[in-house]
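May I ask you to comment on the folded chain given beneath this request?
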Amino acid sequence: MKATLEFNLPDDQEEYELANNAAKWYSICWDMKQEIRKNLKYNDKLTEAEFNVYQSLYDYLHEKLSEYGLEL
């Protein structure tokens, strides 16, 4: 199976750039998730407040991914 995306450039330039850079966006989100997870799991120097911020960010990221039907 093949899929083809077509864009009417320059009118659809923004949509084209978004589709063309989707893998980069995914990589950034993946890296961010891993960094947050690493701090939650292994950084024993976090204050309780810092830990709570990381946990909130981790939960928010997963909530939004779930909301949009996405997984990392």
